[in-house]
Design a protein that fits this description.
Chain lengths: ~350, ~160
Amino acid sequence: MSIADRIQRTDFFRRSPARLGGPADHKEWQHFIIHDAGLELLVNFSLADTVRWDGRPGQESGRLIVVARQGDRRHTAVERFTGADLDVESGRIDARFGRHTLRFADGAWHLSLRLPELEATLRIRPQTWPAVSGNIPLGPGTAAQARTLSWLIVARAQAEGTVRLGGHTHAIRGALAYHDHNWGHFRWGDDFAWEWGQALPADPACPWSVVFVRMADRRRTRVLSQGLFLWRKEAQYRVFRDRDLSVEVGAPVSLEPHKLPAVMALLAPGQSADVPATLRATAEAGGDHLTLLFEPHHLTQVLIPDETDLRGVTRLNEASGTVQLDGTVGGEAVALRGPAIFEFVRG
Amino acid sequence: MVEAWPPRAAAPTMRGLVGESLAVLRWEVPPLLDRLGQQLAGLATHFEVAAAEGPTETFGLAADAHGVRVVAAPEAPAVVVRTDRATIAALLQGHLDLRGAVLTDRLYLLGSLQDVRRLLASLDTWLHGAVRADGCIPLLDRFLESSLGSSLGSSLGSSLGSGR
């Protein structure tokens, strides 16, 4: 079986089981990050069961989030889709959100974005085997309403295509990229928070790719699980979990967050992002050891109204920066220097 | 005289849009409308909103046992809010924050500190309702289109509300 076959069999849209009388509060997103010289692009196709004010389930809606960064300049967009504007078939990687499409064919994801100020046609070819983790608990929940999240990670991919932004066309040729797909049942505002980061080498010849995950309660007084995942070329090479890992965070970073949707900035004004200036994860087990150091340089804040509290807001801080990874695994020296995006969820 | 055809729809008025938003909140997030009513109860508010074209609109908000509604501007207001459509659009688009609007005199607030704080708290409640109500998306579109004189609104308005 090829990597593409495995993607076809595992990365498909799940869709909400509530459509067929199953559990509600389903959320799912297909997430892509492209690190190109001079352009960093984050694209997120998401589906979510909405929740009415009294807790009853609402309709499923789709959303496209795009963050394009060129140096200090950012172009961001959030568009929402319902009804006939949303065409997503469960069991397939084939979706239309209004004029935007995502499909997997010929061994690659094909993204077509048609925003007023940004148009992109991208082919993203997976280069690592997908890693899948199912039903990770998100806080306590109840037996009837388990809060869980499943994810699929493709730590490294390669992107080709064009991005037209601000009247200029940016050609992307072999840029390294990252993909994940998350799905589960929860509400924004539930008792959870996560820190999730990926890094790729600046030098494409470097064989290493890395992903960091830490799940905690909303107040971040208790870590529920954590992991550092290392890939060598196309294969997952080493996983450090929970007690293998210690994490130190520095003082809050002073960066002006770019907020979206823009109107939400009125409800969450100021710089308060609670993102550390440094995150250092040290892993050690079985004679292997790694040290990862992340430093953010730019901050985009996706602001989401809580579904558990009519006056609450959850902040998804997308921190763009650099990673240094060093250590030894299986007697082999590991060294990675390159761009990274870490997501810090804060209640 | 030659009349334009098709006739241009009248630009939505601020008082009309605010009134519609209150109706949307009543339908989609009634607890927040109730809270808004509690915050505004007994607070005579006077809004003046200037526009690039057309007259300055004046209106008030009244809250009582029947809910919150748009009324004629009171003669003896406890709080006066004076601004213009362009400033409101800039706030909604994230080009300006409330502090910046006040410090640059684009948003003028007159009243006792306590009453102004009540009004700002009620604005916060209204916003929490608006970002949770699908029915406010077309209202935002209409406001931005009529205030900015372009079709920017459709992409901006659709960004209202919850993320992922």
